Amino acid sequence: MAFEVSVFLENKITHLEGITNILKAEGINIRSLILNNILHGWGVLNLLVDQPEKAYQVLTDKGNSVSLREVIALEMKDETGGLDELLVKISRAGIHIENAYTRLISIANLAILVLDVPDVLEAKKLLLQNGIPILDDKTVYGN
After folding, report:
1. For the segment 117-135, what is each residue's pLDDT rounded down to a tens digit?
2. Neighbour order of strands in the sheet with 42-49
């Protein structure tokens, strides 16, 4: 199971750096991130890190508003149309995607699509029934 760490933060200079500094001090490697401005100067930072449970704990202990949620990671072809091909399969399986982003692991020549879905258990079941393998967390985090 792969997990994403989300941090609610004020969109001000040094706030993002404050989060990355905490993670660096704890030896937590950021594998992918997305920063979204949501409204009135606030945003959500979504992180894929190599130690999500530890990241959740240390960020929470430092007074941040943090959530930890399971995401689904799927391998896709790292070529033109690779994402489209995978999305067609996901759509045919009947899976609604709320958020998504990609991660590349150059050493392994691996492209990954990370999905945030409303019902992880149901989505996993549908993916497997449709022959779409789910990557393990070790592969996703690049450990």
Report:
1. 999 999 999 999 999 999 9
2. 30-39, 42-49, 2-10, 65-76, 110-116, 99-105
Are 134 and 70 contacting, i.e. CB atoms less than 8 angstroms apart? no
- CA distances 52 to 46, 59, 106, Å, are 11, 10, 21
**Interatomic CA distance for residues 112 and 69, integer angstroms:** 18
The structure tokens 């760490």 sit at 5
Spatial distance between the Cα atoms of 96 and 90, rounded to a whole number of angstroms: 8
pTM: 0.88
d(CA 123, CA 126): 5
Angstrom CA distances, 32 to 63, 103, 127, stand at 22, 6, 23
